[in-house]
Amino acid sequence: MRLGIDIGGTKTDAVAIDDGGLLTQRIRLATGFGSSAVVETAVSAVARIAELTGVSAGGFDSIGIGIPGLVDSSSGRVRHAVNLGFDGLELGGELAGRLGVGVRVENDVKAASLGAYHLMGLTGSMAYLNLGTGLAAGIVVDGLLWRGARGIAGEIGHIPVDPNGVLCACGQRGCLETVASGSGVARQWRTDDPLPVRSLFAAAADGDPEAKAIKARLAAGIASAVRVLVLTADVESVVIGGGLSHLGDRLLSDVHDVLESWGEASPFLASLELPGRVRLVPEGFPAAAVGAALVGVV
């Protein structure tokens, strides 16, 4: 039995999976804010899953955590987890001390990449394109995460695509994340709707010209991310996940249209068959939590 915990900005998802890879238990908790509260949230999640499965913390084959921020997977240290209220935390060490067992910590997008690869039964190479507040990707090759030399493989959201664009949080201008993400949509489309992208798509469907233009930029930005991932890593498939993936076929259709138009203009891009490589993660998939359960053993 393996235990995986996905610690998000507002909620924490925890799962147990058996030796056959099947999900046996799943719970959700509110995520605490600040380093101490995050540790307590993780400890509570372990206790709840342990109670449901009848397996003590020390009885799990592995315990893994997926969490936003810059993660040193070898030490379990997390930095720059702004949405969780801390800049540095020895999460792996803190949890090991509280639980009495080793805990593996991984960036949440990388964990989700591994979870999607496993849950969708994929083989070969895959990129998981996470479209949430920000934009980032994780790459899996033959079932193993590819982290790169310094652990930032897949951080394509900070590739500048417009040198005259808006200032990105990373300090560069015109990064892909500024147009192809939830925060990018919220900056361009002012609304009282707590989900700006939902309001954007509704307004575009009603014919609002500004909404249609922003929606088109969003699709082009996501298509650009797909193109980058294929041209740099030549992955066999790109799986779109994250909050924006809940738009489903409405989003995927727009991205396919952009990729197909590029193929019509470029025989080279047409030969890459980009539209056929892109798919959505199935709705309701606990990809990050399952991936967290797996990072403890891969």
From TrEMBL:
InterPro entries: ATPase_NBD (IPR043129), ROK (IPR000600)
Superkingdom classification of source: Bacteria
PANTHER family: BIFUNCTIONAL UDP-N-ACETYLGLUCOSAMINE 2-EPIMERASE_N-ACETYLMANNOSAMINE KINASE, ROK (REPRESSOR, ORF, KINASE) FAMILY
Family per record: Belongs to the ROK (NagC/XylR) family.
Name of the molecule in the record: ROK family protein
Native organism: Leifsonia tongyongensis
Source lineage: Bacteria, Bacillati, Actinomycetota, Actinomycetes, Micrococcales
